[in-house]
Specification:
Order of helices and strands: HHEEHH
Largest sheet: 2 strands, antiparallel
Strand content: 5-15%
Helix content: 40-55%
Shape: globular
Number of strands: 2
Strand order of the largest sheet: 1-2
Number of helices: 4
């Protein structure tokens, strides 16, 4: 059984979402650092107490194979682009946090969810 590609769905939904209309709880300036795979990969290494946290090299699965996160040749570039968009100062902090969290989880599912279903 091949599950629907949840990453493709997330990429479509995130571009349809009206992030700028989220409740304006707080606006913060754009950070002075670049948000790309390298920064959260460092956090992932710390959290997992690992020496490496490379970008995945195959499709990832979650929920006993019901969710599939496809891997394309441009997946890491797509992730970097999506992460940069979450630093837009015209989007509220809450919306940016939601977009970042959903993006990171869609591109880099937990290592425990990585094996393909049998």
């Amino acid at each position: 059984m091949t599950a629907t590609d949840s990453l493709s769905i997330w990429l479509r939904v995130r571009h349809e979402a009206d992030w700028q209309s989220a409740p304006a709880l707080q606006r913060v300036p754009r950070p002075r650092w670049v948000l790309d795979f390298a920064l959260p990969a460092g956090w992932q290494r710390e959290f997992l107490a690992a020496t490496r946290a490379p970008f995945r090299v195959s499709d990832a699965y979650a929920k006993a194979g019901r969710e599939r996160y496809g891997l394309t040749p441009h997946a890491q570039a797509d992730l970097d682009s999506c992460l940069r968009e979450t630093t837009d100062p015209d989007i509220t902090l809450a919306a940016r946090a939601a977009a970042y969290t959903s993006t990171w989880r869609s591109f880099t599912p937990s290592p425990m969810a990585m094996p393909a279903p049998r």
